[in-house]
Design brief:
mainly alpha; globular
Length: 237
């Protein structure tokens, strides 16, 4: 239940950031010259940048909210510790952010795939749907990795890491404007995904040794000795 408590509000936060970014882009288009194609393209790039910045701003706001909630859970718990760790919250938060982002990225594409028409009939790329699926997969993974890195950087006040997360998010969004030259955009995005995944793995406490232990599926023997008290509850009459 605690996982869902973290998951669902995070998706709502992303929807709010998308709504605000859409309003900014809509007002900019209304106030500009619609006949100027170059200006409209620039406004589209501007809207994407505003969307990224708002998403990261809401990610930070959600981190502060979870920190307050974590302190409250630790206060009411029996052992004085929160039942969910910061790393778990970061992972679930990033995953929910990525899933809702992926759903909104691919839902219109899936609707167009129903028809009518055939992809590529006018000379467009016939690989539109498969590349869109791979791009959506990369974005879901990236948001999950960014969530882990972002929360850890906020907790340890590593502002350089925060800047790198925002910069990589902006770069990934900017690369999508190179489409339909998918070989130019999709390759660098997957390189960013791989590098960010390794970064998140190390940030979460992973190592080469722990990775080998996981792949080998070996469990460590529990060598701890359990000590029981000699005191017994008196028998009832």
């Amino acid at each position: 239940p605690l996982i869902w408590v973290v998951f669902l509000p995070r998706a709502f936060f992303w929807l709010v950031s998308l709504l605000l970014a859409s309003l900014v882009w809509f007002v900019s288009v209304r106030l500009s010259d619609r006949g100027d194609a170059r200006l409209q393209h620039g406004l589209l790039v501007f809207g994407a940048a505003v969307s990224v910045l708002l998403q990261e701003l809401f990610r930070f706001a959600y981190f502060k909210l979870l920190k307050k909630a974590d302190e409250g859970l630790a206060t009411i718990s029996e052992d004085g510790r929160s039942p969910i760790s910061l790393r778990q919250m970061a992972y679930v938060s990033g995953l929910s952010f990525g899933i809702i982002s992926g759903v909104f990225s691919v839902i219109n594409i899936l609707a167009d795939s129903i028809g009518p028409g055939t992809v590529g009939i006018h000379g467009d790329s016939p690989y539109y749907f498969i590349t869109s699926a791979f791009l959506t997969m990369a974005l879901v993974l990236l948001h999950t990795f960014w969530g882990v890195i972002f929360f850890d950087a906020c907790e340890k006040r590593r502002y350089g890491c925060l800047g790198l997360v925002v910069a990589s998010h902006l770069l990934t969004s900017g690369l999508t404007f190179l489409n339909p030259r998918y070989e130019v955009s999709l390759g660098p995005i997957f390189i960013i995904t791989l590098c960010t995944g390794l970064w998140a793995f190390v940030t979460a406490g992973g190592s080469f040794r722990s990775l080998l232990k996981c792949l080998s599926c070996k469990q460590e023997d529990d060598s701890r000795v359990m000590t029981y008290s000699a005191l017994r509850v008196p028998c009832e009459d």
